[in-house]
Write a structure and sequence with these properties.
The protein is of the alpha/beta class. The protein is built from 13 helices and 23 strands. It has 3 domains: 96 residues, no CATH class; 130 residues, Aspartate Aminotransferase, domain 1, CATH 3.90.1150; 245 residues, Aspartate Aminotransferase, domain 2. Strands 9-17-16-15-14-10-11 form a 7-stranded mixed sheet, sandwiched between helices. It is globular.
Length: 492
């Protein structure tokens, strides 16, 4: 029957033109359709019907006859697929097939507005590229040499689905040293082909089709998109700005809960806000998840890019410091931001043992494992990367302070101070279409920044500027943005 779990007695129905459900005995069932009419199930709210196989065998004057072998019936934890019967009935020509179309669930996943703008920028010469979340500083030489050495040593074959045991042990040591957290490298750490893939496998382990996930936004849009890709529903709750700092609206979280809510996703340090969850906020998030029996998934890929510390290099506190090893908590992580390895595609997921076991199995069917030689490069980053990281953090903090000072002199901007990551997220007075604003800025000044609308609820009216670029790029980009805003103000 499939994972929807319909019983045998629920298996056979007929659909009339209004699509009310009528129970039928086993055998052939008449269908009457207008051309290409979609199937639906309005008669049983909360249930979705999945027609897995239909054998059409006759067409007579617009009437098609069929045998239904399987009709999956779902409840709150089952199927959630929108279906179209790809048939067209012509009384004079009989039954005709319509060409298959892209799945409705895939069609619902929106295009990244960041990528949409970037594609336009890539067709232009001389653009100041501040739209992507990466530094223009190349990967350090010691990491490149480690990858070359790994290739020469034969790290070109399959590894364990969970990743090289040596890398997992190094990650466990890393957390013990920097976060004071004890992890079992054999059961609780899964190496992935990027932090993005860590989010994929973590979300897949938490959600069934039709489930709902609370997502704190503005946030990197990929989290909500992944939830949709698994036929679940993202429910975005925006961070309110209070007294110059973003915070969490716990009342809104409470109001958004439904019987289908299974997951809460947040990012700290935040992309795009630079917000970092305080210990009190982490405790309240964890308590909220426990009380409502939710999975809690923290995207912590920017944890080393943290400035509100006495000494640069101290990480932002991980939710793992608050959680027990039995809590329903997962952490997605990556080498990309800390070690300038965005193109290397290697990350990791930390999770409870049962999730670790299943995520390892799922890795086989998604990616098998992260590339062997990039895993060895990741080991070198963990072992030798602290000095380079501190130098990079010094430059990033200087860039952040420069951008804050420049933006606060521009007309009509509200600019909260970010504590982490490498973004500023200024709000522009009177802006209602941030994508159009960014496209016009790109076309007229060749400054590429990301529209706030790309980051979900609470993002419209703002723009994201990545300050990880060199000052030779940031300085003229800020000058051009200031001129553009002044011109915009004079046009009003």
């Amino acid at each position: 029957m499939g994972e929807g779990g319909a019983s045998a007695e629920d298996a056979l129905y007929s659909f009339d033109p209004a699509f009310s459900l009528r129970k039928k005995s086993t055998g052939y069932v008449p269908f009457m359709f207008p051309p290409a009419l979609p199937l639906s199930s309005p008669s049983r709210p909360g249930f979705v019907y999945h027609l897995e196989f239909i054998n059409l065998f006759k067409s007579d004057g617009g009437q098609a006859f069929a045998s239904i072998d399987t009709l999956g019936v779902s409840s709150d934890n089952g199927y959630n697929w929108d279906l179209l019967l790809c048939l067209e009935i012509h009384p004079t020509r009989g039954l005709q097939a319509i060409m298959p179309t892209v799945a409705t669930s895939a069609q619902k996943v929106p295009q990244s507005r960041i990528r949409e703008l970037a594609e336009a920028a890539m067709k232009m010469e001389g653009v100041f590229k501040l739209y992507f979340g990466e530094s223009n500083v190349p990967t350090p030489e010691y990491i490149k040499r480690a990858a070359i050495k790994a290739l020469e040593e034969g790290y070109t074959f399959y590894t364990e689905n969970a990743g090289l045991p040596g890398l997992r042990q190094d990650l466990a040591d890393y957390y013990r040293r920097l976060q004071g957290v004890e992890l079992d490298p054999r059961a609780e750490i899964i190496v992935t082909a990027s932090g993005l893939q860590a989010l994929h496998v973590g979300i897949r382990c938490a959600l069934d089709p039709g489930d709902e996930a609370l997502v704190l936004t503005p946030a990197w849009p990929n989290g909500s998109a992944i939830i949709q890709m698994y036929n679940a529903v993202p429910v975005e709750i925006s961070h309110p700005l209070r007294d110059g700092r973003y915070t969490i609206d716990f009342a809104a979280l409470q109001d958004a809960l439904t019987p289908r809510t299974r997951l809460l996703v947040y990012t700290s340090p935040s992309n795009p806000l630079g917000w970092v969850a305080t210990e009190e906020e982490q405790e309240r998030l964890l308590e909220f998840a426990r009380r409502h029996n939710l999975w809690l998934l923290a995207d912590e890929v920017y944890d080393r890019l943290y400035y509100r510390v006495p000494e640069l290099g101290v990480p932002a506190p991980s939710i793992l410091r608050k959680a027990t090893r039995d809590d329903a908590v997962m952490v997605a992580q990556s080498f990309s931001k800390t070690y300038c390895m965005t193109g290397w595609r290697v990350g990791w997921l930390i999770a409870r043992r049962d999730v670790g076991r299943k995520a390892t199995q799922l890795n086989e069917f998604i990616i098998s494992h992260a590339p062997s030689f990039t895993q060895r490069a990741g080991q070198a980053a963990l072992k030798y990367g602290e000095e380079e990281l501190r130098k990079m953090l010094g430059r990033l903090k200087e860039n952040r302070d420069f951008c804050l000072a420049a933006l606060r002199q521009m007309p009509g901007l509200t600019v909260p101070s970010p504590d982490g990551a490498f973004y500023v997220f200024p709000k522009i007075d009177g802006l209602s279409d941030s994508f159009a604003f960014c496209m016009r800025l790109l076309e007229e000044t060749k400054v590429g920044i990301a529209p706030g609308v790309a980051f979900g609820a609470g993002g419209e009216g703002s723009v994201r500027i990545c300050y990880a670029a060199e000052r030779e790029i940031l300085e003229p980009a800020m000058e051009r943005l200031a001129c553009f805003l002044s011109q915009r103000k004079s046009e009003k």
